[in-house]
Every structure is written in C-alpha cells, then in structure tokens.
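Thread: Newbie trying to understand structure tokens

Hi all, I'm a second-year student working on a class project, and my supervisor (Dr. K.) asked me to get a predicted structure for one chain before our next meeting. I've only ever worked with sequences, so writing a 3D structure as a token string is new to me. If someone could post the tokens and maybe explain what I'm looking at, I'd be very grateful. Here's the chain:
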Amino acid sequence: GTNGTPSAPYQQNYMWAPRVGFAYDLTGKGTTILRAAYAIMGDQPITGIVTGLAANPPFAFPVSSTAAGLTMLNAFTLAGGSVSPYSIVQNYKDAYVQEWNFNVQHKLATGLALMVGYYASKGTDLNIERNYNQFIDSFSSTGALTTVRPFPKLSATSPIDPGVALTNITVAESDGNSSYNGTWSTLTKRFQQGLQFDSTFTWSKSIDDVSQNNHGVTVQDSNNLRGDRGLSDFNAATRFTLDGIYNLPFKRNRVVSGWEVSTVIQLQSGNPLNFHTSNSTLTGNANIRPNVIGPV
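---
Reply by user tm_fold:
Sure, no problem. This is what the structure looks like when written as tokens:
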C-alpha cells in the first residue's frame, strides 16, 4: 500500500473459535436429558470480494462514444466518462457467528422421544457494501434545495484520470449484524413394528441488516444502515417437517410382501416481501423502498 495503507484487504490471520457444552441426566435413568452448548464459528474469507478492484482505473475504464474518428489512441479523450470505483475498507474482518442452545429430551415410550429446545445465534462482522458517494442534500447559491455528490470528481492533481467525474463509490465493509431466536420441537420414533418417523416444528425469527452477501449495495441509505435492519429475506416464522417410513404388513408372497410407504412433508409460512423502486436519482442506487399507504 501507499501512505501507510495496507497492501492486502485482509489484515486478520486468526479466528478464535471455542466450543463448550454439557449433557445431564435429570432422572438418573436415561429418560430425561438436559443439554446446552455454546460455540463461536468463523466464516471463511470471501476471496471474491477483491475481484471488483480489477475494474478500477488504471486497470479498467469502460467508456462509450459515437464520435467520428474514434481509434484506440484517442478513445479515452473523446469518450470521456465517469469513474465508479470499488474499494474495501481498512481492517476488513472475517465474519463470525455465536451460537447457543438449550434443550430437554424426554423418552415418552419405547423408541419414542420428544425434544424441546431454544436455539439462538448472533452474527457479527458480516459483509455489507455501502455507497460512500451517495447523494446528499445541499443548497444552491439561490437557496434552492438540491442534491450533490460528496465527491463530485477526482482531484485535478490525481495521478489517475485527474478531474474525471465520480459516481457511486462502493466500499465493502464488515459492519453487518444478524440475530436468530427460535424454539424447536422434535418428535422422533425409531424403527419399530414397521414404522419410523421424525417430525419437527420451528417457531423462530431471523433479523439482519442485509441478507445478501457480496451482491453490491443493497441498503436503502448507506448513511443509515440501521434503517435496513429487519426480517431476513429467508425468515420463515413457522415451519413444520415430517418424514417417515411404514412397512406394509403384507406377508403372503413375494408379489405383495416387502412394500413400504414413505412420506416427506414440509410446510412453512411465507418469506418477507420487499418492494423497491427503480429510481436511482435520490441516492445513486435503485434501492429505495416506497411508502405503502394501502393494502398490498
């Protein structure tokens, strides 16, 4: 790097990832078991996050022009254009998640068990991208309210493309957060008398700043990340699953014996809907959510 900045986006070469848990027999007979656990798990480095750097000048500068006499020698001068650089914040960190759970499993009958538990997680340092050159309100010389870019163009003394206009400046940061809280109930029957099944019911809520990962600027206001905190794109408040196998009790001959019936059922509530306008004049990105004044 130059001027004391690092030459690599990742300055982190370690990840603390402890695990701890216990199980306790409440009755001493193996019929009711209490379990709890806590863990910190790190995400692998997002290697693709650096590919956007290759599109920055002087490595690349896409322009378009209909000027006559365009050649490889004068294309840059005639076409002009603007720069929309991509960068990665200093001290970018790998994401990690803390997970903890508490559950009780009880034997209801031979081969039949019920488990009820609480499960939660907290994601920290998640990847999120912001527009550092988002339009801001400003007053003109006549007092009229208008919008301007904080960085309208490159400096006249810039060693690369001096004076060229700047548009969006996309910067990858590790400032995203998430949280998950849910209760799980599982009823399991081991194979006995030709029948086995496993059913689970989940009631949960997942919240985050941005559910997508490495997909460009998706927040509505890059200056207010908190405004995008809400239900995760994949959140499903309730979910029920059932899978089972039943051996049909026919034993006469090879034609009718050996048959079994199996099923897999999944039922869940819907995921959140998020509407966006295609207007990019307010912030520079088409991520503005319209105000809903009536039923959808």
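A couple of things are worth pointing out once you decode it. The radius of gyration is 28 Å. Helices lie at 75-79. Feel free to ask follow-ups in this thread.
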